[in-house]
Amino acid sequence: MVGRGRHQHNEINGAFKRVRKIPSLSVVESHNGHRWGWIQCVCGSTPFKVWSTPRNQETMRKAFSNGSVSMSAAA
Amino acid sequence: MTTWNFRVMLNRAPSDEEMDNLYDAGLDDCAVAGGPDGSVYLTCDRASESFLEAIASVLVQIRTVDGLWAVGVGQGDAVTLGDAARRHGGRTQASLRQLASGQRGPGGFPPPLIEADNISVYSWGEVAEWLRTEMGDDIPQVNRDIALADAAVKLACRARAVHQETQVRRLLEVA
């Protein structure tokens, strides 16, 4: 059983850890349909959706690190 | 089989229900995100034999959701020299202007795609390739297929807007 605030994939949890250090970003857990939750930015951009079971967790982890999330935070 | 990484810009943000439909359509290897300018896009890691095939397979899956479609692929290939300097990060607009005019460098800078009213628009794919090969600039390689896919998606959007999809498809076949 995975605890609240934690994703079942460690790569994604590692990315969450970095995101939580950025004051303008927050991780929201919802467990709705295929969605684990999302990452939202105070800038109001479309939240970054996180799947519960992504085909490849690397996709999510890379998206966090290639600017899809941090780009919004920098705005 | 290669895994290709690219972005597909969407016409609007999908609703929660549409998000689940996208997942069920096979887009569980893509993530939905958005920029501060209101743009919404999928960032994809698609395994396929070719880049264009990978992009096409994602576009097909997006179209399974009514009212949702792609409006662009990649970063957008058309740039002014100012845009190109910002993407490059290591050259100024003035430096690129000198290279483009042949005042400096070996010559042969890619010609602009569009030239009007003193504004020249270039292909970032072509410019980046030229800077890498002719000037030895250390910038990431740009896959030209992205520019092709982006142009095709934008053409499809324009055709759809005026309900001329069939005629434009025919034009592409015979052109």
Oligomer: heterodimer
Shape of chain B: globular
If you average the pLDDT of chain A, what whole number results? Answer: 79
Instruction: Tell me the total number of β-strands of chain B.
Output: 7
Helix share bin of chain B: 40-55%
Instruction: Spell out the helices and strands of chain A N to C.
Output: HEEEHH
| Shape annotation of chain A | globular
Tell me the Rg of chain B in angstroms: 18 Å
Main sheet properties of chain A: 3 strands, antiparallel
Spatial order of the strands in the main sheet of chain B?
2-3-1-4
Task: Specify the CATH class of the largest domain in chain B.
Answer: Alpha Beta
> Any low-confidence stretches of chain A, pLDDT <50, length ≥5?
70-75
Count the E strands of chain A: 3
Largest interface: pair, residues per side: A-B, 29 and 24 residues
Provide the β-strand percentage band of chain B: 15-25%
The Cα radius of gyration of chain A reads: 11 Å
Order of strands across the main sheet of chain A: 1-2-3
Which residues of chain B form runs of ≥5 with pLDDT under 50? none
H/E series of chain B? EHEEHEEHHEEHHH
Average pLDDT metric of chain B:
91
Describe the structure.
The complex is a heterodimer of chains A (75) and B (175). By secondary structure, chain A is an alpha+beta fold. In chain A, 33% of the residues lie in helices and 25% in strands. Chain A has helices at residues 10-20, 57-65, 70-74, and strands spanning 25-32, 35-41, 48-51. In chain A, 35% of the residues are buried. With 175 residues, chain B is α+β, with helices and mostly antiparallel strands. Chain B contains 7 helices and 7 strands. Chain B has helices at 16-25, 51-62, 81-88, 93-101, 124-134, 144-161, 165-174, and strands at 2-10, 30-34, 40-48, 70-73, 78-79, 114-116, 119-123. Chain B is globular and about 55 Å long. The relative contact order of chain B is 0.14. The model of chain B has no long low-confidence stretch (mean pLDDT 91). At the A-B interface, β3 and α2 of A face α1, β2 and β3 of B.
